[in-house]
Amino acid sequence: MRLRILSILVLLAGLLSGCGYNTFQTGDEAIKSAWSEVLNQYQRRADLVPNLVATVQGYASHEKEVLTQVTQARAQVGSIQATPELVNDPEAFAKFQQAQAGLSSALSRLLVVAENYPQLKADAAFRDLQAQLEGTENRITVARNRYIKSVESYNVSVRTFPNNLTAMIFGYTVKPNFSVENEKAISTAPRVDFGKPAPASPAAAGKPAPAPGY
């Protein structure tokens, strides 16, 4: 009896392995790992925002619209519960993409505004934050690319024969991925060329810059 049960278990294991079940398990774990790194790098970027906004505000407090946009964009990102289950919900995933794209856009505008304030660009704290931001954006791109490839591999397994039969039986479905348009928007790190001098803004002309607002 035991031998028969063992033989059945071995047969079932072989069938499950051959029909893609193990492939789904491996792929799902790879996606979870890649997603965790994406979230980690996005959180790293979000953590930089308060200090970056405070530093810019110290020199350009009247740029309220841009500063508010960055703060609101960060708040929007923080309002989304980016749990592991989010990758299984296309609608929630799309909202997550939109929120991150909004923060990327707001940060880009903030750095462009900084070009008008030579004393701000010369501030060591600002330069350090800007360097950290660019480094983080690069890490985000790497993490996203890893996630994209993991999802692509998993989705191919779900949709191709005979794995698709196993997917139907066990309820495995394709997972949402970053869209092409969103990938172009976020994979381009915000950059400002500090090597080029920029004219001082009319509002700041002839006035001493206030100390950074930490």
Write a brief structural summary.
The chain has 214 residues and is mainly α. The chain has helices at residues 2-18, 21-59, 64-78, 90-114, 118-122, 124-159, 163-170, 180-187.
| Biggest sheet features | none
Secondary structural class: mainly alpha
Helix content: over 70%
| Termini separation | 75 Å
% residues in beta strands: under 5%
Helices, by number, come to 8
How would the global form be characterised? elongated
* Average of the residue pLDDT scores: 81
Roughly how many Å is the radius of gyration? 24 Å
Q: Would you count the extended β strands for me?
A: 0
Order of secondary-structure elements: HHHHHHHH
Q: Which residues sit in consecutive blocks of at least 5 with pLDDT less than 50?
A: 5-17, 185-214
Explained architecture:
The protein has 214 residues and is mainly alpha-helical. It is elongated. Helix content is 71%, strand content 0%. The longest helix has 39 residues, at 21-59. It is built from eight helices and no strands. The protein has helices spanning 2-18, 21-59, 64-78, 90-114, 118-122, 124-159, 163-170, 180-187. α2 (21-59) runs antiparallel to α3 (64-78), α2 runs parallel beside α4 (90-114) and α2 (21-59) packs antiparallel against α6.
